[in-house]
Q: What sequence folds into this?
């Protein structure tokens, strides 16, 4: 067994460690839940933890691997959430088997988010740096406000669409309101579970890690490192940038479907899909290390659980949360801290070589 491990490529070993870390964490959490050693508060945020991990890993594909700053990731999550929830509510009485309905809703949410990724990516990816960040931020806000202005109802005559506030004017008495503007969607089947979130994390990691280590992934990283050099060797820059952007959007849409089916009421307010949500996901990526997929997973878990674990400290919990953010950021990115880590790691390597 040790011989097989030794013969494996470095990237394969790293990927297996990442999968093992996620599987081990899931096993520990499930053990704590089954034995009653986990509080109901922490147990209740396990699905959101899975959602944030998927969001962080998918955004790292754009920010870390492609090298472009996107601030509209919550917009793709919003698209996936509402399209998946809309399908589930329409099909609730038609498809009574919950797992099948949720699976189809997941496919629809991913497909719609990917479509929006293509439509937005074609014009937006011509921009760079701050300009790209501003446009993607605007996209996220536009999506949120469009959803807040949509009213969709259904009756015996079919579906009705409106931007008015009173849906009773356009549907019959036997009709139902599916999307009620700022009030969103109510009565979505709560099909999301911690196990489904765990499976979604593994699928997301499998897609991202295999993409990074593939020929397409190397082309994407070549564009990130030097666009002119990549073009000079025949790499289609537009194609690969759009590929990374679309895959990232699709996975964010899947996280949105998971989010929508974890709530009984889904609204497109600022806290759910606004600017702050995109910034929070970006914080996970930066704190875990830009381009470091495993770091994104760890950062998403720690920064989601930390405020809840410190809730007993009341007024001081957000202060401690901010201090932890600053300390970790300095440890990861301060020149002196980087120099100290390199010195420590090199010392460890020299010691191993001396033993050999």
A:
């Amino acid at each position: 067994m040790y011989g097989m491990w030794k013969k494996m490529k470095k990237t394969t070993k790293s990927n297996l460690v990442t999968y093992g870390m996620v599987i081990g964490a899931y096993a520990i959490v499930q053990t704590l839940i089954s034995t009653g050693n986990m509080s109901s508060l922490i147990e209740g945020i396990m699905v959101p933890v899975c959602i944030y991990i998927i969001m962080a890993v998918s955004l790292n594909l754009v920010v870390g691997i492609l090298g472009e700053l996107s601030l509209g990731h919550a917009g793709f999550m919003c698209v996936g959430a509402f399209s998946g929830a809309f399908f589930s509510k329409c099909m609730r009485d038609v498809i009574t088997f919950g797992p099948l309905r949720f699976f189809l809703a997941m496919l629809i949410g991913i497909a719609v988010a990917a479509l929006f990724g293509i439509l937005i990516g074609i014009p937006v990816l011509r921009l760079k740096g701050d300009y790209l960040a501003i446009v993607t931020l605007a996209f996220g806000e536009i999506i949120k406000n469009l959803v807040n202005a949509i009213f969709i109802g259904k009756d015996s005559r079919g579906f009705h669409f409106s931007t008015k506030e009173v849906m009773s004017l356009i549907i019959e008495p036997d009709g139902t309101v599916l999307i009620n503007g700022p009030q969103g969607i109510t009565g979505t089947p709560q099909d999301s579970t911690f196990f489904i979130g765990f499976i979604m994390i593994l699928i997301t990691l499998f897609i991202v890690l295999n993409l990074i280590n593939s020929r397409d992934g190397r082309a994407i990283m070549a564009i990130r490192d030097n666009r002119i050099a990549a073009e000079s060797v025949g790499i289609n820059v537009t194609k690969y940038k759009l590929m990374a952007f679309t895959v990232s959007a699709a996975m964010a849409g899947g996280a949105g479907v998971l989010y929508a089916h974890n709530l009984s009421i889904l609204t497109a307010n600022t806290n759910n899909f606004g600017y702050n949500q995109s910034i929070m996901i970006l914080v996970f990526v930066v704190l875990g290390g830009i381009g470091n997929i495993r770091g994104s997973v760890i950062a998403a878990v720690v920064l989601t659980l930390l405020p809840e674990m410190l809730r007993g400290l009341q007024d001081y919990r957000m202060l401690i949360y901010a201090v932890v953010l600053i300390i970790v950021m300095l440890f990861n990115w301060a020149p002196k801290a980087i120099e100290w880590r390199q010195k420590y790691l090199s010392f460890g390597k020299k010691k191993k070589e001396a033993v050999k």
Observations:
- The two ends are 21 Å apart (CA to CA).
- Residues 61 and 208 are 7 Å apart (CA to CA).
- The first strand starts at residue 151 and ends at 155.
